[in-house]
Amino acid sequence: MERKQTAVLVAGSWGTALARVLADNGHDVRLWTRNPEQVEEINLHRTNARYLPNAELPTGIRAMTGLNEVLASAELVLFVAPSSAMREVARAAAPYLEPEALVVHATKGFETDTLKRMSTVLAEELGRDEDNVVCLSGPSHAEEVIIRHPTTVVVASGNPTCAEAVQDFFMNEAYFRVYTNPDVIGVETSGAVKNIIALGAGLSDGLGFGDNAKAALITRGLAEIARLGAAMGANPLTFAGLAGIGDLIATCTSRHSRNWRAGSLLAQGLPVEEVLKRIGMVVEGIRTTKFAHELAARYGVEMPITEQLYAVLFEGKTPESAVGDLMGRVRTHEIEEIAAASREKWLK
């Protein structure tokens, strides 16, 4: 594989793990952070201990604080900033971006004020056609990718040439397999909303419920994701793939999931502020619950799990009361409501 210059913004857990994939594939990787101490740690000690303890980074990764240095001659630029900071980071990067550089993001969430997807935010700030922005998503914990455990993801773009070019950058035969998908809306919506369901899974486990409850939560959570995604224009089949059910299973069942851990702490009666303090990193599911609640109202979509988690997070409802209200909902059919979302999509 030809060695190429790549840039990763920022040096959190997922950005660092994906930087390893690019370095393992023979590319030069410049990893951006605002923190000079983190730069020194990565470059001198080959570690990023706050985000990925005990992981040793390859020499192909070099950390820097200057965006002009990081982005100079970069043929691929990967944005992995938190959703709340994506616009700020993209705006700062825009003057230094090469016109022909591939633009990719691997952030799962919506923008705080506008509820826009990350590809839309990047397109606006970078002056790019949104079809040329690629989203990388799927069941992929940074803690496993950094130690080269087998992982399979999706890259989504309205431009198949861009998607395939990004696929070539990231895919390797050792541990990282990449599929392409044209449904950006479905992939981004799945990646964002599954974090809400993972909060619910952690809360369920924290309350001492068993596998029956978690299986129901995952399955009904997928129905909520599919209903919202279809209303936003996604292909319902996307939710049966890696970015949908695959990512949902990984996030709802893994000890690596910050969202699961946050839900488990909520079940102990801790306030949101204390939960975030204990996790010590961004928990996208908490913010996304608020945004998805607003999107459900905007699109007229029923999302009962999201509604109850919103009440727990922002209205002081107890987890026990939320579970009781979910179980006591009016009886309904399972298949017909999912099929209706598919029919609405394809009959337009």
From TrEMBL:
Residues 183-323 form the Glycerol-3-phosphate dehydrogenase NAD-dependent C-terminal domain. NCBIfam families: PRK00094.1-2, PRK00094.1-3, PRK00094.1-4. It is an enzyme of class 1 (oxidoreductase). The gene is gpsA. It is found in: Cytoplasm. It comes from the Bacteria. Pathway: Membrane lipid metabolism; glycerophospholipid metabolism. Gene3D superfamilies: N-(1-d-carboxylethyl)-l-norvaline Dehydrogenase, domain 2 (1.10.1040.10), NAD(P)-binding Rossmann-like Domain (3.40.50.720). GO terms for biological process: carbohydrate metabolic process; glycerol-3-phosphate biosynthetic process; glycerol-3-phosphate catabolic process; glycerophospholipid metabolic process; phospholipid biosynthetic process. Pfam families: NAD_Gly3P_dh_C, NAD_Gly3P_dh_N. Keywords: Cytoplasm, Lipid biosynthesis, Lipid metabolism, NAD, NADP, Nucleotide-binding, Oxidoreductase, Phospholipid biosynthesis, Phospholipid metabolism. This is Glycerol-3-phosphate dehydrogenase [NAD(P)+]. NAD(+) binds at residues 142, 258. It catalyses: sn-glycerol 3-phosphate + NAD(+) = dihydroxyacetone phosphate + NADH + H(+); sn-glycerol 3-phosphate + NADP(+) = dihydroxyacetone phosphate + NADPH + H(+). It comes from Cohnella candidum. PROSITE patterns: NAD_G3PDH (PS00957).
